[in-house]
Amino acid sequence: MEANRLLAEKAHVSALRMEEMTHEMQIIAHKTKAETVSMRIITLVTLFFLPGTFISVSPRRQHAERYYSTEVHNFAQLTSRASTSTPGLIGFYGGFEHGDTFNILLEYANGGTLEDMFQQREPPSCGDDIIAFWNAFVEVLKALASIHDLKKEASDTMGHKVFQGYVV
Questions:
Q1: Nearest 5°: CA angle at 165, between 146 and 68?
Q2: Fewer CB within 10 Å, N side or C side of the chain?
Q3: Side-chain half-sphere CA neighbours of 23 within 13 A
Q4: CA angle 71, 74, 78 (to 5 degrees)
Q5: How far is CA 93 from the centre of its chain?
Q6: pTM
Q7: Which segments constitute the Protein kinase domain (predicted)?
């Protein structure tokens, strides 16, 4: 009985935190007035040693439900292929609808995009750095290949974002 009560309390606290995070993200989205073409652009990737969950809320659009359904379906298919999963692909925890917003739960990352990395860092110059770069890049290619294997429409695949070591 006590264990059930503790689990219920933890679940309630987690739900309150998620609600608070959703509200904070709505405020940030309103302040920046950033719109996206589809759900995948709102995604974030994994912190180095502190993986966490981030809730992203899509803007209300005419085709948002279709984009949402497609993204959830595709992420679920990629996730279900556990034996072929690659560390270069962002983690997917699920999705939910709330009112007229569509939400996808993904891994969190603070590394920025590959473009950011190339602008902020010098190109790898020593052997170990070059090997590490290409090993990470191969993981990105594996992630792109797994997305391509879904046989999605070319326009869906072309819109994916590449973050440092991850494909979204």
A1: 55
A2: N
A3: 6
A4: 135
A5: 9
A6: 0.49
A7: 1-168
